Amino acid sequence: MTDLLPEALTHFALLDALAVFALILAWLGSTAFIERKNTTNPSTHMLMEQYRERWMTQMVTRQPRIFDSSVLAIMRQGSTFFASSCMIAIGGCVALLGGADQLTMFASDLASTPVAPKAVWEVKILLLMALLANGFLKFVWSVRLFGYCAIVMASTPNDPTDDAAYPTAAKSAEIANHAARSFNRGKRSVYFTIAALTWLIGAIPLIIATLVTLTLIYRREFNSRTRLALAN
What we know:
- There is one protein chain.
- With 232 residues, this protein is mainly alpha-helical.
- The protein has one domain.
- The protein has helices at 4-9, 14-34, 44-61, 66-98, 100-111, 118-154, 165-196, 203-222, 225-231.
């Protein structure tokens, strides 16, 4: 098992290394680009942060706060759903590792190439598992943060004239933004996991899938009708 990685690396071409590097760069770079504070062209993610801050300000004077708790519960359920999905997908990857021999034959038939060593496919599956594990951890932390946010919201004074009302609401908004940021990072891990699946076919499909995923993310964050509606 300790010789798995060195043995597998000898069977990868330079194009494979470039494809994986492009995937990781796109994954990390898209996060940094989306979450940057740009006042001239903010992303959908950053625009939503402003709306959460407004939400918590309005929450102070809303009585009762059933609507606010319902919205927060929906957001937490979304994180829980994706966390469960990641766990199921990780289990599927573990099953694939156990059946790497069958996967080798199947993927080689798809690509019409000679059968690659079993260790090569195991490394490719481990990349999928790493991305899914990151997504799972982000979603779980998001669930936790939404729970913290609910507690801070509940501690916000009902009286808007109370000196602690709006500062406490601001804390709620900050925690909610952290939770949403973690949730969005988890979703991007899932997006790039889907792209990484194409590496089972070859390096060129992985590069193409990475570019398609990056284009899709950019469009949703900077050039979608939803973003236009939020910005206006």
